[in-house]
Specification:
By secondary structure, this protein is an alpha+beta fold. It has 3 helices and 11 strands; from the N terminus they run E-E-E-E-E-E-H-E-E-E-E-H-H-E. The strands form 3 sheets. Strands 5-6-7-8-9 form a 5-stranded antiparallel beta sheet, covered by helices on one side. It has a 4-stranded antiparallel beta sheet with strand order 10-1-2-11, covered by helices on one side. Strands 3-4 form a two-stranded antiparallel ribbon.
Length: 144
């Protein structure tokens, strides 16, 4: 999976892609852009395009085993999809930390202890076997 952490106007995320027990890439950029929106993805890479398409009203077939933080230039939200309920968009409060992915418990604890979003993902890399590679950041707004 991955670790995505948001805090103080910054989204941080790792770059590890695994296939079973094997590392496929350790430098994959999980931030995808379409029509001015940025999608920071977690889950199965093969489903990324399905979730992004669902956001724009495209039909979805099969399962969608991924989720994302989506930034539209002003607001941030969590996005996921399931066949029963369709697209789920949950607003994220910009004044509070938020995490998702397999290393989310580690990242949230690190941020609770004062770490930045990027530092939190670095900490998650130490304990979560599905988080690794480069830590990238996306600045979505200036705090202060």
């Amino acid at each position: 999976m991955t670790t995505i952490a948001y805090k103080d106007g910054v989204i941080a995320y790792d770059s590890l892609i695994c296939n079973g027990n094997a590392i496929t890439y350790d430098d994959y950029d999980k931030c995808h852009e379409r029509e001015g929106l940025k999608f920071v993805m977690t889950g199965y890479v093969c489903d990324y395009s399905k979730l992004i398409g669902a956001w724009f009203g495209e039909p979805v077939t099969g399962t969608v085993e991924c989720s994302a933080l989506v930034f539209d230039g002003k607001s941030l939200c969590y996005a996921a999809y399931n066949a029963e309920h369709g697209l789920c968009k949950t607003p994220i409060w910009l004044d509070r930390p938020y995490v998702l992915g397999s290393g989310s418990d580690h990242a949230m604890t690190a941020m609770d202890m004062g770490a930045t979003a990027a530092e939190a993902v670095e900490m998650a890399k130490k304990r979560d076997t599905s988080t690794g590679g480069q830590v990238r950041t996306l600045i979505i707004h200036q705090v202060g």
